[in-house]
Amino acid sequence: MDALKARIRKEGKNLGGGILKVDSFINHQVDPVLMDACGREFAARFAASGAAKVLTAEISGIAPALTTALHLGVPVVYARRTRPITMSDQVLLTLAPSHTRGQTVELIISPQFLGPDDRVLIIDDFLATGQTIMALARLTQAAGATLVGIGAVIEKTFEGGRDVLAPLGVPIEALAIVTDMSDGRIIIRD
Amino acid sequence: MDALKARIRKEGKNLGGGILKVDSFINHQVDPVLMDACGREFAARFAASGAAKVLTAEISGIAPALTTALHLGVPVVYARRTRPITMSDQVLLTLAPSHTRGQTVELIISPQFLGPDDRVLIIDDFLATGQTIMALARLTQAAGATLVGIGAVIEKTFEGGRDVLAPLGVPIEALAIVTDMSDGRIIIRD
Lengths: 190, 190
Prior knowledge:
32% strand, globular
């Protein structure tokens, strides 16, 4: 994903504290062509996984999860942070600490859309501490579904998320891997 | 958009009070192939608009807005409901009453991504009372940008949104038009 790495180098901003600002192409303004390329790449990397559903969390996971699902030809489900009035009373719910929000958020899924027959690929914009993705994995387990893989557009290795997720025992793919953001740098693995 | 109308007829649920539940293919679980087809249709209908940016509101507008932007080959911006810590302090903000949430929500955009040179196409999942789309139009005006069109995946005519938006003087396109939900019905215009 050279196009993604080049874009991070060009437009990514190091806000300090490990916060990487990419809101000009991923999570406020979105470059749909780049997101489509990310989705195509995830679909290729997980082609053998047998994934039958893509799972993500609102909000900024939606774009890469949608394009991945499009290229895999499977539905995507996004966990909600608040229960809309259109959702049934019986829900799957877990809590996740949000790094960039500084609070704990709920992640909610209707059991109608995640069940024992589902083979689930989790896609999110960032793999940082791994807490959001671990929460999605808990929802997958609670539904009795099978987790088959985890994909993140950008991984920040120095926040340790990959180690947190390792016990899940599934392949973890990141399209751009940032290894160091100390002293204002943004170092991306070649 | 016969595929969309067929899907609403098959899976849409009338929850009463004008609430149309379509969370099996639009706003919880999403059918990416159908959303891609919706995006292609919007891109065709607004091909002559000169739209250079697609604008939507999180959360459920993101999927159709992203696919529309993909087919137009332009960026998409989604207005946030809360200001993430990665967003600058100077923002464009407006308030919108949320029909399905029963409260007023903030819609926030970084002025970095919406400015006087932008020709803006607003895309959302629903056109109901028109309040969310009108709020996005206010943000467009506040940024000094030019609104060139409005597209909704599903319009509910009986909530009057089209009349609310008419003074904006731009084309309004809906891919499925629901004209009556009284007495448990879901009547879609052919």
